[in-house]
């Protein structure tokens, strides 16, 4: 079973569409005189692009979430605009040096990481990857925009869950081995 962050074009059979003129996504015959197209419609082409290209998924999620962290609500686009508008007033100066008081302290914490990050709600390691049978809506529904701080917290929680599962599996193997030795 395929379960990855994105799919490759190899996950959609190539030989059959070249020889038989079938759509790579829905396996329907491609209309005649369609040139070099490998999909039957723009919808199938869009689905192929979303399933296979990570940057397309990222741009769609950022547009949907409006560059806002889905956990803490930080508007990263606004933060970037504020910092760079301050830079325009004083050229050749880093945005943090211009701001004063609490604004400066607040932005200084976030200025290094103000780019939004995309997170899988159900991690790929837990079955949240992309499969060829998924729709575009299903793929995008499993993604969300997070700021760097929230992404670090979520990733740390995932690491703790995985470590607990590994410990549990090791303990199960150990107890099974001990039971066999004692029997």
What report would you give on this structure?
This protein has a two-stranded antiparallel sheet. With 183 residues, the chain is mainly alpha-helical. The protein has helices spanning 15-20, 42-52, 54-65, 76-89, 95-98, 101-110, 136-141, 148-182; strands spanning 117-120, 143-146. The chain has a domain at 149-183. It is flat and about 75 Å long.
Strand content: under 5%
Number of helical segments with 4 or more residues: 8
Uncertain residue ranges: none
Distance between the termini: 38 Å
- Topology order in helix (H) and strand (E) letters: HHHHHHEHEH
Question: Would you tell me the overall average pLDDT?
Answer: 77
Rg over CA atoms: 24 Å
- List how many beta strands DSSP finds: 2
Main β-sheet description: 2 strands, antiparallel
What percentage of residues falls in helices of 4 or more residues? 40-55%
Q: Any idea what the shape is?
A: flat
Find the structural class using helix and strand composition: mainly alpha
Notable characteristics:
183 residues; two-stranded antiparallel ribbon; flat
Short description:
This protein has 183 residues and is mainly alpha-helical.
Helix-strand layout with pairing:
Layout: H1 15-20, H2 42-52, H3 54-65, H4 76-89, H5 95-98, H6 101-110, E1 117-120, H7 136-141, E2 143-146, H8 148-182
Antiparallel strand pairs: 1-2
């Amino acid at each position: 079973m395929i379960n990855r962050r994105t799919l490759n074009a190899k996950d959609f059979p190539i030989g059959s569409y070249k020889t038989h003129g079938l759509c790579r996504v829905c396996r329907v015959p491609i209309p005649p005189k369609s040139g070099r197209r490998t999909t039957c419609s723009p919808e199938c082409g869009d689905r192929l692009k979303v399933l296979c290209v990570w940057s397309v998924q990222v741009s769609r999620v950022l547009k949907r979430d409006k560059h806002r962290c889905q956990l803490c609500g930080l508007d990263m686009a606004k933060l970037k605009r504020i910092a760079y508008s301050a830079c325009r007033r004083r050229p050749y100066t880093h945005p943090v040096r211009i701001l004063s008081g609490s604004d400066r302290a607040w932005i200084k914490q976030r200025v290094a990481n103000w780019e939004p990050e995309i997170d899988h709600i159900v991690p790929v390691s837990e079955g949240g990857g992309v499969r060829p049978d998924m729709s575009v809506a299903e793929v995008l529904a499993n993604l969300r925009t997070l700021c760097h701080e929230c992404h670090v917290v979520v990733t740390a929680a995932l690491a703790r869950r995985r470590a607990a599962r590994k410990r549990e599996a090791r303990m199960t193997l150990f107890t099974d081995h001990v039971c066999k030795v004692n029997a």
